[in-house]
Amino acid sequence: MGLPDASGDLSSEMEVDAFRRLFPLRFYERHLAESIRPDGRPLGRARDTTIALGAVTSADGSALAKIGSTTMLAAVKMEVMTPSMESPDEGCIAIDFHMPPICSPIVRPGRPAEAAPVVSKQLSDTISSGKAAWMAYLDIYCLDADGALFDAALLSAVAALFHLQIPAVSLNDDGKIVVSEEDGGKLEKEPVNKEKRKLTLRSIPFSLTCILHKNYILADPTSEEEAIMETLVTVVLDSSSQLISLYKPGGAVLAYTSAVQDCIALTRQRVRELQKILDEANSGMEVD
Amino acid sequence: MAGRPGTNPTTYSPSLKTQKTRSTIFKDQEIDWVRPDGRGFQQCRPAFFRTGAVTAASGSAYAEFGNTKVIVSVFGPRESKKAMMYSDIGRLNCNVSYTTFATPVRAQGSDRKEFSSMLHKALEGAIILETFPKTTVDVFALVLESGGSDLPVVISCASLALADAGILMYDLVTSVSLSCLGKNLVIDPILEEESYQDGSLMITCMPSRYEVTQLTITGEWSTPKINEGMQLCLDACSKLANIMRSCLKEATTSSQE
């Protein structure tokens, strides 16, 4: 394509890998000029996404979400708390995002990844719910880190909340809440809620991360793309296409109005895809 | 309302399991224990293994034994930390951690130091460290759900992950544990059985070479009982090794297609 290169003849197959390692930016720009990416995707397409509900039986709600190779496992555990004075009818949700050392060669045990608290904060800003005096501990573990961590984390968190079933509990003599017996034999305990119930969610957030590079917009980057081209934009829309959040943490490329509008349009399309995938996963569970 | 990061209200789990006291069945030695999942005393749980679970790692494996689910990633051989001295054999670094939702009652998901060092001792006898001098092989395990007999599953899964990463070993390492409930020996115990046990025996061995890399015994054991327990475990280990081998063969044939 007329690019000057000092590494001689690069058209032989064995040297493609070397070129990819030595001159990653040029490798990508050659592909972008043809409007395609090395893994064969067009610029605006996200990777294959799957959701599996109920992955972990020891938690009250759980989900495993995969976007390409990025894998996230989210689980919700419910505990009882005394509500605060100002809001006696509200519960609480605590969100924690972990990157255990298995997910990526750059994470070491004992030294948390730099991305972890950033994603944690982003998730807390996006999600909100609450019923009675329940404390929901939402923990998200990254099992495989290959780019677009926030998107996969949000998707798995939303799916886990979808799958959550608040256990049937009753009030004990000591004033403590205890899980109701399955056979319902003990009558002196007053049941607070007779059966397991699902959480009602107002509006569901979905997100898409895009990379801006010169005048190209790449949707759903892999970790290789994120490492080379550093300007990321994350757009979070809810199921009625209302904007919840727009996040652009610095980067060399400026986000002009047209770029932001294109990102939002790509996200809108992605929301429809994700909504369908989530509904399929949900209905798949109910058949059981 | 969204979680307020500053406040940490004290919470408790409404689960009944924390309030159950140990059953008095075993005071009377005549009554037998019936396993909740309907297995025989000498029957292990069905094992499921899959390699290549984590694409970011050099090698990885996922193991599922009943409700115990474990992922192990192997990174390396890669550069040792700069502070370490020169060594003409390789180093092995192990780390085992639990997710916060792995146990029935939510606990802080911290590293389990004793499991990490036990995993290290179990594996170091089997890995040919001379093949990667000056470098380190990192083995990281994450227990997604704890359903009993966690460490043996972690060890077996780790050796499968090492094989997937291409690290040279003398043989695959498999591990099985046994619980002593009154006068009964129960193999591959679940969480409930482990909480009632009087003693436990865990063997890690290299089945084809018939060599034991680690033996851990807790509780009171008479010599004939130890012999019986060891024999049961060694048989189970060799069967488990066959399952692991067929999993590896399947992985290589499917990648060749």
Automatic annotation (TrEMBL), chain A:
SUPFAM superfamilies, per database record: Ribonuclease PH domain 2-like, Ribosomal protein S5 domain 2-like
Keywords: Cytoplasm, Exosome, Nucleus, RNA-binding, rRNA processing
Superkingdom of origin: Eukaryota
Pfam families according to UniProt: RNase_PH, RNase_PH_C
Domain Exoribonuclease phosphorolytic: 46-167, 204-265
Keyword Phosphoprotein: no
Keyword Protein biosynthesis set for record: no
GO BP, sorted A to Z: exonucleolytic trimming to generate mature 3'-end of 5.8S rRNA from tricistronic rRNA transcript (SSU-rRNA, 5.8S rRNA, LSU-rRNA); nuclear mRNA surveillance; nuclear polyadenylation-dependent rRNA catabolic process; rRNA catabolic process; TRAMP-dependent tRNA surveillance pathway; U1 snRNA 3'-end processing; U4 snRNA 3'-end processing; U5 snRNA 3'-end processing
Gene3D superfamilies for this protein: GHMP Kinase, N-terminal domain
Compartments reported by the entry: Cytoplasm; Nucleus, Nucleolus
Family classification: Belongs to the RNase PH family.
Protein name from the UniProt record: Ribosomal RNA-processing protein 43
Lineage: Eukaryota, Viridiplantae, Streptophyta, Embryophyta, Tracheophyta
From TrEMBL, chain B:
Annotated GO CC locations: cytoplasmic exosome (RNase complex); nuclear exosome (RNase complex); nucleolus
CDD domains from the UniProt entry: RNase_PH_MTR3
Tree of life domain: Eukaryota
Name used for this protein in its record: Exosome complex component RRP41-like
Pfam family, one: RNase_PH
Transmembrane segments: none
Species this chain originates from: Carya illinoinensis
Residue ranges, compositional bias (Polar residues): 7-20
One Gene Ontology biological process: U4 snRNA 3'-end processing
Main location, first listed in the record: cytoplasm
